[in-house]
Design a protein that fits this description.
Chain A: It holds the Pfam family Glyco_transf_43. Chain A: One of its GO terms (cellular component) is Golgi trans cisterna. The complex is a heterodimer of chains A (520) and B (412). Chain A is α/β, with parallel strands linked by helices. Helix content of chain A is 34%, strand content 11%. Chain A has a domain of 243 residues: Spore Coat Polysaccharide Biosynthesis Protein SpsA, Chain A (Alpha-Beta Complex), CATH 3.90.550.10. In chain A, helix 1 packs across helix 3. By secondary structure, chain B is α/β, with parallel strands linked by helices. In chain B, strands 1-2-3-4-5 form a 5-stranded parallel sheet. In chain B, strands 7-6-8-9-10 form a 5-stranded parallel sheet. The longest helix of chain B is centred in the N-terminal third of the chain and has 17 residues. The chains are: A alpha/beta (520), B alpha/beta (412). At the A-B interface, helix 5 and helix 13 of A face helix 6, helix 8, strand 7, helix 12 and helix 13 of B.
């Protein structure tokens, strides 16, 4: 190798002056000289960034005919420059050479580095959007086995009340997230109202807002009946508009998992899923007690079916539908809520509507390819008491169990309502702002006076209608108090959260490199 | 306009016809400048005669070093095997359109596995002498209807260093023959006009063994694994890859979107399938097996090699499939990649998902329809019929048998 030979010659040269000199002083002088020269070369190399000595000895050792260090990069495809060109021929020759010669040259090129070689946040965001789009496309093409997905028709009975915004937003967000086309039929008891319309307008999915002329009654039992009528009304809309897709019943206080929407795509005509029942009791102690009681019952009976809060299809070992799991109401006998604002467990029906999904074509008029075990929907008489969707079928055994034969719980049933007479600001907008403000006892801001004037609850008996917020508390002792109360959130929350020191508001902007170092 | 409407019509037809198939993957039809030729069947379009050369040119080399079967130059060996049992082979040389000589010039490996090209010119020369003296077909055209597979770094220039390769140029005896090579760069001495560029050999079974389900979301934006500086041969940088790889490292080592490094993980193939863009920069030569891997794994190749000629360039519209970045634009690589519109990216992915695209890059054993062997034959078939001028009159000599360095004239 050429370089090792150079190294050798360097060493030889280094050794020879020291060996040949006999004089001690000249020897030491030479040694010092070499040392100084070596240090100088090291410093220059440090500055330049490469071994400078190689260049020097290249000059000294290489023959004149070998490559000159300052020659331009090797371009063998260009013809050697000719000096005897006539001026008017030059352009022609140049044009010829430029067309056949390559722009790419062999040789040492510079390493191009831009002045600020760090990520640009705008571009990082663009890249993330690209990644998101690509992943969405992947999901669409490969996700559900590539089958074309059907629209989801969600039927929601609702009515304007305190918790409507809470529940409806939950359902709305689930529907917005579902990666399918969604048609949302919202049936509102008491007629279509602006509050409901304003909530569902934010969804971005196609909505059909239907008014229902009856008002929602106060008992859970009656309520269930009205809800059934509302759902049938929605199904009639599906029939009239000939909506195509999978009909599911999204009661507005239920929770749906995303896998639920994926699973119901598999339904052929009529399917059933397992529903987790959250029989919520208004009273926490009662809830605990009932759980303890349930545990006792489990130990006594040691039967797994009695305490499963799941409603859905029951299958045998070969995954065929043989029956239904229904919610065991025994532990709650006599203790279930009757009125809306009862502090007791709200129990579901035997078979809740939300656990069933159906192909919308079942409801259509013409018997295209409808199976015979489906009743004609147009001839259904509502007044005969339709309890569960199984009444739509002639043969309930043809129901398809979904979610690996009911083993997966894909949605949860829950009923939580505020008191029937509870007031809330319309549209949950507090306008004009509340008049009563209570300063917190302890604040992180030092300029606020530490001792606020203490105001007790009973002093604030202001009933100014719309300006007041009422939130029914769970530990409400006074059942008689109907007067409006003002909650003091600041005090309570601040005591919990802001314990001690003021936080340092000047946060340092850490470079993104630190965060992403682990990636590489 | 008409192209787009016909493309969409074809796409619709494909969509409906493919709905009965098992995998309903949305792909797009590939048609390059030569048309929709990836699925052409070359059988019946040409006839190839395989010369019977002594085994010192092929089998003995392979016996000496079986590593030749697995390195990226193995295409020459597999092409021979394919032709021996292919229906395009004819045993009657008088009716053959093309003549193939089974030589393995790249099968002389160092202990570390790199091929030494120093004896290859002599081997070629000796083989051609044998062919021209034993059969009359070489002298009829001086090799114009013969083809040779030379998959080495710079093709038939037979050297791994670009300057030396350019100095040597293509072996003079091969000047009229068709060269099937992996190297391709426009206006370069080592790429003859009529050459067919092929992809380097990548082991198909190994790649198939590392496939992951296609619904695994692609979460890496840009992926690259390989050297940025060749510290053994070019410590200061600037020579290796014309400084392009070093520029990629220096500009994007801090960028979280770029998953680039030198260490080669065991999940290399899986990571490529989780990436949207895979960098394919030049090294000492402009081509690399990364292109094949990127195509097989559905990762859009970002080709950083000025004037490169990609495999089967007339059959595959590489401009629509990959992203080409000039070497001087490497510092702006992140801007270039993020400013590509999303529809273009999705279209490129659909083109890459086309199974005929992936097949065309592979050399499977045994050969399958549409694979690289068939694309080579398609390319040869497209060059037919031979122009009348290639046939020389009796006694006419065009090639200079004594040209080239003195060392090449020694017998092998």
């Amino acid at each position: 190798m050429k370089l090792s030979a150079l190294h050798q010659s360097y060493l030889n040269r280094r050794r020879s002056p020291l060996d040949s000199s006999a004089d001690a002083s000249s020897k030491s002088f030479l040694a010092v000289f070499w040392l100084v020269l070596h240090c100088l070369c090291c410093l220059i190399s440090l500055l330049l960034g490469f071994r400078f000595s190689r260049l020097v000895f290249f000059f000294l050792v290489s023959t004149p005919s070998s490559t000159n260090l300052y020659s331009p990069p090797f371009r063998p495809d260009l013809p050697p420059p000719r000096t005897d060109l006539n001026p008017h021929n030059a352009t022609a020759v140049e044009a010829k050479t430029s067309s056949s010669s390559s722009r790419v040259v062999v040789g040492r090129h510079g390493i191009l580095i831009r002045p600020w070689p760090h990520p640009d946040p705008v571009e990082v965001m663009k890249a993330h959007r690209i990644i998101e789009r690509v992943q969405r496309e992947q999901k669409a093409v490969f996700g559900s086995g590539g089958k074309s997905s059907r629209a989801v028709i969600a039927v929601t009975p609702t009515y304007a009340r305190t918790f409507q915004a809470l529940h409806l937003n939950g359902v709305m967000h689930s529907l917005m997230l579902a990666p399918y086309d969604v048609v949302w039929i919202v049936v509102e008891a008491g007629g279509a109202s602006n509050e409901t319309a304003s909530i569902i307008a934010k969804s971005g999915v196609r909505t059909i807002h239907v008014g229902f002329d009856q008002r929602m009654p106060n008992t859970w039992e009656d309520r269930g009946k009205v809800e059934v009528l509302m759902r049938l009304r929605a199904l009639r809309v599906v029939k009239e508009e000939k909506l195509d897709g999978v009909v599911m019943f999204a009661d507005d206080s239920n929770m749906h998992s995303m896998e639920f929407f994926d699973e119901i795509q598999n339904v052929k005509w009529f399917g059933a899923v397992s529903v987790g029942i959250l029989a919520h009791s208004g009273n926490a102690e009662e809830m605990v007690m009932s759980m303890d009681k349930r545990r006792e019952m489990e130990k006594e009976e040691s039967s797994s079916l009695s305490s499963l809060p799941v409603q859905g299809p029951a299958c045998n070992a070969t995954d065929k539908l043989i029956g239904w799991h229904v919610f065991n109401t025994l532990p709650y006998a006599g203790k279930s809520a009757v009125y809306i604002d009862d502090v007791a467990a709200v129990l579901p029906q035997k078979l809740e509507w939300c656990g069933f999904v159906l192909n919308s074509r079942i409801l259509w008029d013409e018997a295209e390819s409808k199976p015979e075990w489906v009743k004609e929907f147009g001839l259904l008489n509502e007044n005969e008491g339709v309890e569960s969707p199984l009444s739509l079928l002639n043969d309930p055994s043809m129901v398809e169990p979904l979610g690996s034969c009911g083993r997966q719980v894909l949605l949860w049933w829950l009923r939580v309502e505020a008191r029937a007479d509870s007031k809330f600001p319309p549209g949950w907008v507090i306008d004009p702002p509340l008049e009563i403000t209570v300063a917190a006892k302890r604040t992180p801001w030092p300029d606020v006076p530490p001792e606020p004037p203490t105001k007790k609850k009973d002093q604030m008996s202001l009933s100014q209608g719309n300006n007041v917020v009422v939130i029914p508390k769970q530990q409400q002792q006074q059942q008689q108090q109907r007067s409006s109360k003002v909650r003091k959130p600041k005090r309570r929350s601040k005591r919990n959260k802001h314990e001690a020191k003021p936080t340092d508001t000047t946060t340092q902007v850490s470079s993104s490199t630190k965060h992403h170092q682990e990636r590489n | 306009m008409t192209n787009r409407s016909s493309l969409s019509a074809i796409l619709l037809f494909l969509f409906f016809s493919a709905s009965s198939a098992q995998h309903n993957v949305r792909t797009e039809r590939i048609s390059g400048s030569a048309g929709d030729v990836l699925e052409d069947n070359p059988v019946g379009k040409l006839k190839v005669y395989v010369y019977e050369l002594p085994s010192k040119y092929n089998k003995k080399l392979l016996q000496k070093d079986p590593r030749c079967l697995t390195h990226m130059f193995a295409a020459e060996i597999f092409m021979h095997r394919f032709l021996l049992s292919s229906p395009v082979r004819t045993l009657n040389p008088d009716e053959a359109d093309w003549f193939y000589s089974p030589i393995y010039p790249t099968c002389d490996l160092t202990p570390t596995g790199l091929p030494l090209p120093f004896k290859s010119p002599r081997m070629m020369r000796s083989a051609i002498q044998l062919i021209s003296s034993n059969w009359p077909y070489w002298n009829k055209t001086e090799g114009a209807d013969h083809f040779f597979v030379v998959p080495h770094d710079f093709g038939a220039c037979f050297h791994y260093q670009e300057e030396k390769a350019i100095e040597r140029g293509i072996l003079p005896l091969l000047k009229r023959a068709t060269l099937v090579q992996t190297f391709g760069q426009r206006n370069h001495v080592c790429l003859d006009q009529g050459s067919i560029t092929i992809p380097p050999f990548a082991p198909p079974q190994k790649m198939q063994a590392h496939l992951i389900p296609p619904d695994v979301p692609r979460s890496i934006f840009v992926y690259f694994r390989g050297l940025f500086y060749d510290v053994n041969n070019d410590p200061e940088g600037g020579y290796y890859a014309r400084g392009a790889r070093a520029a990629v490292w220096e500009n994007f080592k801090n960028n979280p979107l770029f998953d680039i490094s030198t260490d080669h993980p065991t999940t290399y193939y899986e990571d490529m399938q989780r990436s949207i863009f895979c960098l394919c920069p030049l090294g000492w030569a402009p081509w690399s097996p990364r292109l094949v891997e990127a195509v097989v794994f559905g990762c859009i190749p970002v080709i950083i090699a000025d004037d490169i000629v990609l495999p089967f360039a007339d059959a595959i519209p590489w401009e629509e499939i990959g992203v080409f970045v000039a070497e001087k634009d490497v510092p702006e690589l992140d801007t270039i990649l993020t400013s590509i519109p999303t529809e273009v990216i999705l279209r490129k992915q659909r083109l890459l998902a086309n199974p005929s695209m992936k097949q065309a890059m592979l050399f499977p054993q045994p050969a399958q329809p549409g694979d690289a062997f068939h694309q080579i034959l398609n390319g040869l078939a497209r060059k037919l019929p031979h122009d009348g001028s290639v046939y020389l009159k009796a006694g006419e000599k065009v090639l200079n048998w004594t040209a080239g360095p003195v060392g090449d004239l020694k017998p092998w």
